[in-house]
Amino acid sequence: MNQVSIRDAEERDAPAIAALCGQLGYPTPTESVVPRIDRLREYAQARVIVAVVEGSPVGLATIHLRHMINHEAPIGQLTLLVVDERVRGQGVGRVLVAESEAWARARGCKRFVVTTALRRTEAHAFYEKLGFTHTGRRYGKDFS
Ligand SMILES: CC(C)(COP(=O)(O)OP(=O)(O)OC[C@H]1O[C@@H](n2cnc3c(N)ncnc32)[C@H](O)[C@@H]1OP(=O)(O)O)[C@@H](O)C(=O)NCCC(=O)NCCS
């Protein structure tokens, strides 16, 4: 694997980001991505980053800060992570998580969390490898 660099997502990344969202199971039209990047960019409590190899985005992560009433420090949350299936297992996910943690830490977070679907068993192994422990369950409801 050639060198991996991390930068904030830009509008020119929209086609790659749409493809990565598709690989994660969320079919996403490219034209929807630009306004979403813009919306997140305006929101100081979130960040969208891409991992770039040889000029092409091969991984994507979003991170959010959650300010809480029961904790002084905000909690950092990895809210999306996907690596291009052609380059998985080569360290890209690790670099994206390290950058996400560093961003949260620099904003005062004392805790960093991720929620992941029960079916994503490979992701569970990945997070445990990176030092996360399984501490809870997520419940969800789709509004009709
Ligand atoms: C999960 C995912 C982001 C990991 O990214 P990646 O670039 O493939 O992972 P890395 O190569 O950085 O792996 C980091 C470490 O985790 C381990 N790891 C990665 N995938 C693993 C797996 N399926 N099982 C066990 N360990 C795994 C690696 O062996 C590596 O450890 P090492 O450095 O000691 O060898 C990627 O596989 C992916 O996009 N999966 C599909 C989408 C997904 O599930 N996203 C998470 C949603 S919450």
Report the strand count. 5
CATH superfamily caption: Gcn5-related N-acetyltransferase (GNAT)
The main β sheet shows up as: 5 strands, mixed
Q: Radius of gyration in whole Å, from Cα?
A: 15 Å
Please give the count of helices.
4
Oligomeric assembly: single chain
Tell me the count of domains: 1
CATH architecture: 3-Layer(aba) Sandwich
- Uncertain residue ranges: none
Percent of sequence in beta strands = 25-35%
Topology as a string of helices (H) and strands (E): EHHEEEHEH
Structural class: alpha+beta
- Helical amount among residues, as a percent range? 25-40%
Described by the principal axes of the CA atoms, the overall outline is globular
Strand order of the largest sheet: 1-2-3-4-5
Distance between the termini: 44 Å
CATH hierarchy class name: Alpha Beta
Keywords:
single chain; 144 residues; alpha+beta; Aminopeptidase; five-stranded mixed β-sheet; 33% helix; 26% strand; globular; binds coenzyme A
Description:
Helix content is about 35%, strand content about 25%. The protein is of the alpha+beta class and about 140 residues long. It has one domain: 3-Layer(aba) Sandwich (Aminopeptidase). A five-stranded mixed sheet has the order 1-2-3-4-5, with helices on both faces. Helix 1 packs across helix 2. The chain is globular and about 40 Å long. The N and C termini lie far apart (about 45 Å). The model has no long low-confidence stretch (mean pLDDT about 95). The chain binds coenzyme A. Coenzyme A binds next to strand 4, helix 3 and helix 4.
